[in-house]
Write a structure and sequence with these properties.
Blueprint lengths: L3 E4 L10 H9 L2 E4 L3 E5 L2 H5 L10 E4 L2 H13 L9 E4 L2 H6 L11 E2 L11 H5 L6 E6 L5 H8 L4 E11 L12 E4 L2 H10 L9 E5 L1 H9 L6 E3 L8 H12 L1
Parallel strand pairs: 1-2, 1-9, 4-5, 4-7, 5-6, 7-8, 9-10, 10-11
Antiparallel strand pairs: 3-8
Helix pairs in contact: 1-9, 7-8
């Protein structure tokens, strides 16, 4: 009998959400706790990479978070980002977010017209063969995008500017859930670091995405519920509801 479900992310701000519907429809209790958080590298830590952001004519950004830490670090290092800097963003949302930091002009901010694929920016990049690219990344990232640029003869310098850190589990908070829902490989790392001696037993684990499933398998855990691209359910609340329909 499923009674308590833990979602490894913050509680939704709105009352009407898929988690509330789970509680109302199935009589379960949904708890939320952010297993990971983001910390920016200090200027001293960043300098250890021996990268000078002003040696580059363009910045590649895959998130608003990346934009925040790029400009924060430049400010901490007392570097003035020139007005001539170009920005290549993986989505319009990220591109428009740059208005918070720069005098926004379309001729220096590039993003896909639809979707969030850097591949769609290749024509604009190839029109500027002398551009020098700095790509802002987290310490946890894949080589896929960097490899894609390399395969298209675009040299990119990776720059780690922020990191994903485990959030300690409160010592006075019981860890007694029937289902634990994890959304990222970093969440799996947090689970292992917070509870190094924890045994899964009858506890069900729900995982979003192939990366999370792979991380759980490598950590020796059993995945009971899956969601994500190419799966029967697009989201974990939907996948858990599907499980409860059959088993509750």
């Amino acid at each position: 009998m499923i009674q308590k479900i833990l979602f490894s992310q913050p509680r939704p701000e709105t009352a009407h959400n898929p988690y509330s519907r789970l509680e109302d429809q199935y009589g379960v209790q949904c708890d939320f706790y952010q297993f990971i958080h983001i910390e920016g590298l200090t200027a001293r830590e960043f300098r250890q990479q021996h990268i000078n952001p002003l040696d580059y004519t363009a910045v590649i950004l895959n998130s608003r978070l990346g934009a925040e830490h790029y400009f924060r670090l430049c400010e901490e290092m007392r570097l003035t980002v020139p007005d001539s800097m170009h920005y290549y963003c993986n989505s319009e949302q990220v591109g428009l977010y740059l208005q918070k930091f720069i005098n926004y002009r379309k001729r220096k901010v590039f993003f896909p017209e639809t979707g969030n694929k850097f591949e769609d920016l290749l024509p604009a990049m190839h029109r500027r063969p002398n551009e020098k690219y700095l790509m802002v990344l987290s310490d946890i990232h894949t080589q896929d995008q960097i490899n894609m640029f390399a395969e298209n003869h675009i040299e990119v310098q990776p720059a780690i500017m922020y990191r994903t850190v485990t959030t300690p589990w409160p010592k006075d908070k019981p860890f007694d859930y029937d289902i634990i829902a994890l959304f990222t490989p970093a969440g799996v790392t947090s689970l292992c670091e917070n509870f190094p001696d924890w045994k899964q037993g009858k506890t069900l684990i729900a995982a979003f995405g192939e990366g999370t499933v792979r991380a759980l398998d490598e950590a020796g855990f059993r995945v009971d519920i899956e969601a994500g691209p190419g799966k029967a359910f697009a989201s974990l609340p939907m996948a858990i509801a599907g499980y409860l329909d059959k088993n509750q």
